[in-house]
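Long-time lurker. I teach an intro course on protein structure, and each term I like to show students one example going from raw sequence to a predicted 3D structure in token notation. This year I'd like something fresh instead of my usual example. Would anyone be willing to generate the tokens for the chain below so I can use it in lecture? Attribution to the forum is fine with me.
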Amino acid sequence: MKKIAVITGASGGLGQALAKKLLEDHWELILVSRHAEKLNAIFGNAHTQIIADCSKVSGAKQIFDEALSLNLIPTALAHCVGNIRLGAMHRMQEADFDDCMSANLFSAFHTMAAFVNHLKQASLAGAAVFVSSAAARIGTQNHEAIASAKGGLEAMVRSAAATYSSTNIRINAVAPGLLDTAASANILSSDLMREMAAKQYPLKGIGNAEDVADLMAWLLSGHATRVTGQVWSIDGGFSSVRPIVK
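-- Reply from a regular --
Happy to contribute to a lecture. Here you go:
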């Protein structure tokens, strides 16, 4: 049986890195984004491309309905949709908070629900991996919105892993620190800001999408068949180790 994986948020830096890694591991890819022009600019006509908003129930269902219409039955899901909304909660606009929850939590819930329904209808096992954040694991200044969303995502991963383990559907997440991608361009917009960000981590530096993609690919692979309900920190020790301050 062909190995077919869905990558949501495929036009982002992490989605692109994961697509490259899964191709090396001989997966066939279904790439999902809300923006057709971005997918086309990055991937051209390569791979199956589906334009859908998976923060909505209908959009999440559309992904797997379109795949089935093309005789594609994915057994792996990598959910890379998300955004970064920083700011103290008393100053955050309602629209910004709602957007943060929609992109980071609601999209994960609806996409996972649609994926499970797809697998159960096909009587197949499968694996899913989500993207959390170090901010959900340790209190970080001005991260209340993203911490709320990603904390909810981590709880969802554990509960869904319990619910669907009897049908051999594995569900895990990774929790990176700050990554050097377009999503964090504003945070890393100068050499000084980059230097300050790097100093927060016990292992100095800024994370890269390729390292996170390697871990996500492993969690979807046959090497991780005994792994479910886990959130894997890949944050340079940020959430568990105090850095040495000099």
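Some talking points for your students: The chain has a mean pLDDT of 92. The beta strands are 4-8, 28-33, 48-51, 76-79, 126-131, 169-176, 231-234.
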